[in-house]
Design a protein that fits this description.
Helices cover 30% and strands 22% of the residues. Residues 1012-1087 form the Carrier domain.
């Protein structure tokens, strides 16, 4: 630290621009210049931990024993080595540096350091003969053992003897006692002690001016200034409070897997090297911006994360040495502090502009680096979660520590840090500047450390490749907007746009009615459709439809004219549907059970000239004013008309039907589908597998799945099996499948689940099942394929605007819990995953799905503006080609399959977190006894958005809502746990078989504060909550963290519970059960204390 105010220079000075340049608000000098010096002082009986130590100690208590903070360094030694002398040198090292002989304990929930006396501290050096080919495994076993910091010092050593004069000394230090800077003095002191002991003398060191305990006491004393308004600490607090206001709680990266409820800290690394031809231009760009190389790599990483969809406000973490006192330079200890560097990528900046922003933000942060990271966390007070690191989840580091050298005459030594297969954060970009033998810059090494529970290695390798590609782009065009920079290589772009969209397939240039007529001519006596015991052959269906078509023509029906079709599912309805097409018109399916007002709206908006219906439905259609044709009454007239087809007056681009959407997002809108669209679907090669022999028609005609159920079999000579009219219940549907030996069917996701779980026996002879409409449930596919491995099970996706189906994925056993893809595009369909500027996004990065090809509907009937908004020009096809903007967020998988992520326009956000409801549903559905599950966001009171879950019990199972909610809390991040779980007898479904959200009941919530203790456990806990939080009273439903609790107070509360109630609870338990009521239940499962609490050890240095 500084030797006086006169020697103080602001950190910002070396990079400061000319005097006229604008700077951000903040102190004009280092805010800590007046901080008290770290001096040697008498140790109190209980030495507090430094703030950095406190964080690691708390994480150890929260997570339990782990190796995330084990730091192993291997010294490869060549030459004569005396193991006994090396043992003595290690003892000398412990004597010199108190931090290496310090244990850690707590009293009343507060952590303390216990510095062991020299004579009681020992680092035993074990020497083993080791085969070189097994060395890596042996070292991995050694450094993968957790430290027990309460009972052992934070240093271990092992000497592996490979040959008489070849050894490897493995030093393992816990991060709580050291940092990257510490290795240089540690190895220097160890080498000096070894050389001295080898000569029979004690090392002649200059005494250290201070020890780590002095630093801890000094830091605590200095931080007491925070309550003084004009103090340096108060100004630091004010700066970080302003700087971190509105900070995103987590970065949304292109994860391969959902974030678990608790981070395991398992990790791996990807390593790459950039030669100087790449590094030099970046170095020059940073120099031109009056910045450092670190600022260059920081800006580059921020640009990459922006391009990967992480947003425009990017908080990144970085360590700083924290050794601002000269007295600390030669000390081994944990001085490093973490800074949050906030990158602003809003407003389409160029890389040069981003670099300038990063420079300013970094310099401001450096000028205020003295505030401990732990205090920053307290200032921001983010939502507590064991699933992620607070304030930032991505770190960027440029290694510039002093070289750690072990220099002893007669010995050559090479130091190498070992990979520990851990990850402290989601991603860490660690750069190291390389130099050649002459000391000239020789490129950059990049090590990407990643959490393996979130990312696959291939994904992180792709990040590294993308970062390199991005670097080549930004140095070549530093003034180009980052939004316009292409992250994809030419080969990647070709794969996304061409290879994975190579779906061209010849299709007849004909209408649906023409193709049906041709099929009827080829197979006149084959069964076309059956309803119960009644069957129509192709000849009979064709003849009856032709006769009705002639009659419709006589009424004026022609090309593109809409004719309402308001009939229950039946053979007659099928005849009418085909007849309307043969007359040249387009059918408008109407559900007889719709409200009259809705039927009237649809008929009038579609400008229907006529509506074909049954006598019992006529009264419901009168208000529309559209003329009716009662099918029952025109049989005699129609029966005398020709059975041959009327002359065709339409072509493939004329309308075949208009289907209105459910209106769940607003007023219903009619989607106009052409003959060509239908033929494209029906002629897909996917149906040529022989499985479509008998296709079940059970969907309502107003649901576009009916297009598949009708025209795929009828245009290929197969057999349509009609389910009974109306909403067929499951037993009836199952009976129809078995009785008619159905071979193929489509089921909505919800119906598929019910049928498999409750009537799976009916599927024994089915050859293919297609399911879609909502996110697939892996468990249902797994159950189906386990029972019937012969079934071709397909997850299918497609908006009505793309004619029923656009992509599909065949599900194969074994089925994991990973999201089931929605697959690859069907014939003559092209799919694009694009960003906001309609540019393709890389594999793994979520983007909006756009669909192009011959299946695209004409648009929305009578809605030119909406059509133009959703059906946009395609920049990837021929002139005039369109693509449909689905509003669905998807991402590419490496094999060209699409994974559904969620919606773009109704994205769920809870307390600043993006939440995909399907993920919660999937976890809830795996709980014992749960047959069905659904999760929605409710806002029953303005501004109070709550996640609410609904569960249906399996037959014979008894569910408890609170038990289910606790189960979710045990497996998911806190912000994803629903506020309530409501038990239902069945999930309400719409007529299309989808979840009817409007019919789900609202929960009855307890007040945000309240609840009177009812049990001895609740009374005791309520008192302890109030005591630790400094409150008068606490209700049983009040969350500890909502009342101002944080990690340190949580530790104190657990300690008070231990001492007062004589039970052992983990800190994690409090995170999972933060209310008095929930924690009281955990008390019953808690273990009694089996050991006496540790007491602080007293002893001199």
């Amino acid at each position: 630290m500084r030797r006086g105010a006169a020697g103080t220079r602001p950190v910002r000075n070396p990079y400061r621009r000319h005097a006229g340049a604008a700077t951000r608000p903040g102190p004009t000098r280092d805010a800590c210049a007046a901080a008290p010096h770290a001096i040697h002082r008498a140790a109190p009986s209980m030495i507090p931990m430094s703030f950095a130590q406190q964080r690691l100690w708390f994480l150890g208590k929260l997570e339990g024993p782990g190796i995330a903070f084990n730091v192993p360094l291997a010294l490869h030694l060549a030459g004569p080595l005396d193991g006994f002398v090396l043992q003595a040198a290690l003892s000398d090292l412990l004597s010199r540096h108190e931090s290496l002989r310090t244990c850690f304990t707590d009293a009343e929930g507060i952590g303390y350091q216990v510095v062991l006396p020299r004579e009681r501290a020992a680092c035993v050096l074990n020497v083993v003969d080791q085969a070189e080919e097994e060395l890596d495994d042996a070292m991995r076993r050694f450094h993968s053992q957790p430290f027990d910091l309460e009972r052992e010092i934070p240093l271990r050593a092992m000497l592996y003897r490979l040959a008489p004069q070849r050894h490897v000394l493995l030093l393992l230090v816990h991060h709580i006692a050291s940092d990257g800077w510490s290795w240089a003095p540690m190895l220097r002191d160890l080498a000096q002690a070894y050389a001295a002991r080898l000569g029979g003398q004690a090392p002649a060191w200059t005494p250290l001016p201070v020890q780590y305990a002095d630093y801890s006491l000094w830091q605590r004393e200095w931080m007491t200034q925070a309550d003084t308004t004009d103090s340096d600490v108060a100004r630091l607090v004010d700066y970080w409070k302003r700087s971190l206001a509105g900070l995103p709680e987590q970065l949304d990266l292109p994860f391969d897997r959902p974030r678990p409820a608790r981070a395991s800290q398992h990790g791996a690394t990807v390593q790459v090297r950039w030669d100087e031809s790449l590094a030099s231009p970046l170095r020059q760009l940073a120099r031109d911006a009056r910045g450092s190389l670190f600022m260059g790599v920081h800006a580059l990483v921020a640009a990459l994360l922006f391009k990967l969809g992480a947003g425009e406000d990017l908080p990144l973490g970085t360590p700083v040495a924290g050794r601002s006192e000269e007295a600390l330079n030669d000390l081994v200890g944990f001085f490093v502090n973490l800074l949050v560097l906030r990158s602003d990528v809003s407003g389409r900046p160029s890389f040069r502009q981003l670099l300038a922003r990063v420079r300013d933000a970094d310099l401001d942060a450096y000028a205020h680096q003295e505030l401990p990271f732990e205090r920053m966390v307290d200032i921001v007070n983010p939502g507590r979660a064991t699933s992620r690191h607070p304030l930032f989840q991505v770190a960027v580091i440029l290694q510039n520590n002093r070289d750690a050298l072990f220099e002893v005459p007669g010995l050559s030594a090479q130091a190498r840090f070992l990979v520990t297969e851990t990850a402290k954060y989601d991603l860490t970009f660690e750069f190291t500047e390389l130099f050649d033998a002459a000391g000239r810059p020789d490129g950059l090494a990049l090590q990407l450390e990643y959490a393996t529970e979130l990312f696959d290695r291939s994904t992180v390798q792709r990040f590294a490749d993308s970062l390199r590609h991005l670097l080549t782009q930004v140095v070549a065009q530093p003034d180009c907007s980052l939004a316009d920079i292409e992250l994809l290589s030419a080969q990647e772009r070709y794969t996304l746009l061409q290879t994975w969209n190579d779906t061209a397939h010849a299709v007849p240039n004909a209408t649906v009615s023409e193709l049906f007529g041709a099929q009827a001519a080829r197979t006149p006596d084959a069964p076309a459709a059956s309803e119960g015991a009644s069957t129509l052959s192709y000849r009979e269906l064709d003849a009856r439809a032709n006769q009705l078509a002639h009659y419709l023509r006589s009424l004026g029906v022609g090309a593109d004219q809409r004719v309402g079709l308001c009939m229950e599912r039946s053979l007659d309805q099928l005849v009418a549907m085909l007849a309307i097409l043969k007359a040249g018109g387009a059918y408008l399916p109407l559900d007889p059970n719709y409200p009259e007002a809705r039927l009237s709206l649809m008929l009038n908006e579609a400008s229907a000239m006529r509506v074909v219906t049954r006598a019992e439905h006529v009264a419901r259609l009168h208000s529309s004013g559209v003329a009716t044709l009662v099918f029952d009454d025109c049989g005699q007239t129609v029966g005398h008309l020709p059975q041959s087809a009327p002359p065709m007056e339409c072509h493939p681009d004329h309308l075949a039907y208009v289907i209105y959407t459910s209106g769940s997002t607003g007023a219903p809108k009619g989607i106009a589908v052409s003959h060509r669209n239908v033929v494209e679907l029906a002629w897909n090669r996917r149906w040529r597998d022989g499985a479509q022999q008998r296709v079940l028609m059970h969907s309502p005609p107003v649901f576009d799945a009916c297009t598949y159920e009708t025209w795929v079999p009828l245009l290929s000579g197969q057999h349509v099996i009609l389910a009974p009219p109306g909403r067929a219940d499951l037993p009836v549907l199952a009976d129809t499948i078995v009785r008619h030996q159905v071979t193929a069917l489509f089921l909505t996701t919800a119906l598929f689940r019910l049928l498999v779980e409750e009537h799976g026996d009916c599927l024994g002879n089915v050859r293919t099942v297609w399911s879609g409409g909502e996110a697939a449930v892996p468990r249902v596919f797994r159950e189906l394929l386990a029972r019937y491995p012969h079934i071709d099970a397909v997850n299918v996706y497609g908006p009505t605007e793309t004619t029923t189906f656009a992509t599909c994925h065949r599900v194969l056993a074994p089925v994991s819990e990973a999201p089931i893809p929605i697959g690859k595009p069907l014939d003559n369909t092209r799919v694009y995953v694009l960003d906001d500027a309609l540019r393709p996004v890389p594999v793994g990065v979520p983007g909006e799905l756009y669909i192009a090809g011959a299946g695209l509907a004409r648009g929305y009937l009578q809605r030119a503006g909406l059509t133009a908004q959703r059906f946009v020009a395609s920049p990837f096809g021929a002139p005039g080609e369109r693509m449909y903007r689905t509003g669905d967020r998807v991402r590419w998988r490496e094999d060209g399959q699409l994974i559904y992520v969620g919606r773009t326009d109704h994205q769920v956000k809870i307390r600043g977190h993006r939440v995909e409801l399907g993920e919660i549903e999937a976890v809830l559905a795996t709980q014992p006894g749960v047959r069905q599950a659904a999760v929605i966001v409710r806002e029953d009171q303005p501004g109070q958005r709550q996640l609410v879950a609904y569960a249906v019990a399996a037959q014979g199972a008894a569910l408890d809502a609170s038990t289910l909610r606790r189960a979710l809390a045990g497996t998911m991040p806190e912000y994803m746990v629903p506020a309530a779980v409501i038990l239902l007898d069945a999930l309400p479904l719409t007529i299309n078989g989808k979840l009817d959200q409007r019919a789900l009941p609202a929960p009855v919530f307890q007040p945000a504060s309240g609840g009177v203790p009812a049990t001895p456990e609740e009374y005791a806990l309520a008192g302890l909550f109030a005591e630790v939080l400094g409150l008068q009273r606490v209700g049983t439903q009040d969350s500890f963290f909502d009342l101002g609790g944080h990690s340190l107070l949580a530790t104190r509360l657990i300690s008070r519970i231990r001492s007062s109630l004589q039970v052992e609870l983990s800190i994690r338990t409090l995170f999972e059960a933060p209310t008095v009521a929930e924690l009281a239940l955990r008390l019953r499962e808690a273990s009694p204390i089996t050991r006496k609490p540790l007491r602080p050890m007293r002893g001199g240095a």
